[in-house]
Amino acid sequence: MIKVVKFGGSSLADAEQFRKVGRIIRKDADRRYVVPSAPGKRTPDDTKVTDMLYGCYGVAIMEEEECEEEFESRLEKIKERYDEIIEGLGLSMDLTDEFRMIRENFIRKTGRDYAASRGEYLNGRIMAEYLGYPFIDAADVIFFDEDGNFDAKKTDQVLAEVLAEKKCAVIPGFYGSMPDGSVKTFSRGGSDITGSIVAKAVHADMYENWTDVSGFLITDPRIIPNPKAIDVITYRELRELSYMGATVLHEDAIFPVRKEGIPINIRNTNIPEDKGTLIVESTCRKPRFVITGIAGKKDFASITVEKAMMNTEVGFCKKVLEVFSDNGISIEHMPSGIDTFTIFVHQDEFEEKEQKVIAGIHRAVEPDFLELESDLALIAVVGRGMRATRGTSGRIFSALAHANVNVKMIDQGSSELNIIIGVRNHDFETAIRAIYDIFVNTML
Ligand code: ASP
């Protein structure tokens, strides 16, 4: 078996966390390829090393002389974070030369991406030393093309070739290189993507993504204290939930492994005995509850367009949608009736252009009636189990009625994978509690 293991910033924030990671890796000989993030927060008000690097580089490129001292002190603070880890682990390595080079490159304005990438680079060096694994610089194996897009083909070829010769290795996350050799990073949280790319290249049996939560929770813990974790979730379900705001994994991390059928296992470094969440392409395993997850977002506005015999007018929807795209407003949802259809948009995007949009729709389709509503929330109830279970929507809506929540909109996709419900902003939390209660609490 081959497992690729990625550790997030909080799992590597200090020497104690590093030791936990070491124990996890040594416990299973299949955990052969390790992708570390940069050190994250040690306490809630701490600063991630990546943010320290961005800040330090921002000062480095300022021309003013008085910034010099500030630059040196910021760089020193970053070095201290690493020195503390090295000392805490009892390693004999010394990063003085590395920091001398980083300092010179900052002064030479080598770029923001280079600056940020040093967080993962240095953590990778320490991790390799700590584990006794070979270190592979991501700049030598992860590539971007001229336009700055990830070059999957070249990366896969080179990475597979390089790793074929290594039984185990540490490859820092988050960055790679451009055709001219300069360093480029993925977007924030991008070490998840590196882990996925490495898993694909070595044809891993499993991509373990270690973080500080025991997988995806059924719903937001700020609304339901200690919600149950999701055991198994499909990529499609995950997409629905993350679209609605549930985040644990970088969205782009899914693509490389999904194509290869490699499952992702989200695990908790602080509670390694928890099984976490398994993300798979498809599964026969029955979900524990009828629903897999509930997620949602607040602050939508809706625009309802009504016109008699709308359905006979060719291109009616297209004309209305064009008004939104002409005004640069993205559409979130579009439930429709016979002579009406409603468009949900983000309120903050819409508010300032509201009158222009209304005028545009009048001009484009001459509606009989236009109605605007604001302060709406959308809730997605997602679950592959809903398809096989009668009465799911019945249970949702009776639970909402009992909780005194008025449902403004219902939209069930034909895949029966999700039901989207529109409610007032102020009913959002009550609605989620009611749905969680009926599907999870009553089943325990
Ligand atoms: N260190 C980078 C960040 O903070 C990348 C990562 O942790 O995945 O965004």
From TrEMBL:
Pathway: Amino-acid biosynthesis; L-threonine biosynthesis; L-threonine from L-aspartate: step 1/5; Amino-acid biosynthesis; L-methionine biosynthesis via de novo pathway; L-homoserine from L-aspartate: step 1/3; Amino-acid biosynthesis; L-lysine biosynthesis via DAP pathway; (S)-tetrahydrodipicolinate from L-aspartate: step 1/4. ATP binds at K6, F7, G8, G9, T211, D212, R222. Its EC number is 2.7.2.4. It comes from the Bacteria. It is an enzyme of class 2 (transferase). The keyword Kinase applies. The keyword DNA damage does not apply. One of its GO terms (cellular component) is cytosol. PROSITE patterns: ACT, ASPARTOKINASE. Keywords: Amino-acid biosynthesis, ATP-binding, Diaminopimelate biosynthesis, Kinase, Lysine biosynthesis, Nucleotide-binding, Transferase. GO terms for biological process: diaminopimelate biosynthetic process; homoserine biosynthetic process; lysine biosynthetic process via diaminopimelate. It catalyses: L-aspartate + ATP = 4-phospho-L-aspartate + ADP. Residues 381-444 form the ACT domain. Substrate binds at T50, E120. One of its GO terms (molecular function) is ATP binding. Catalyzes the phosphorylation of the beta-carboxyl group of aspartic acid with ATP to yield 4-phospho-L-aspartate, which is involved in the branched biosynthetic pathway leading to the biosynthesis of amino acids threonine, isoleucine and methionine. Belongs to the aspartokinase family. This is Aspartokinase.
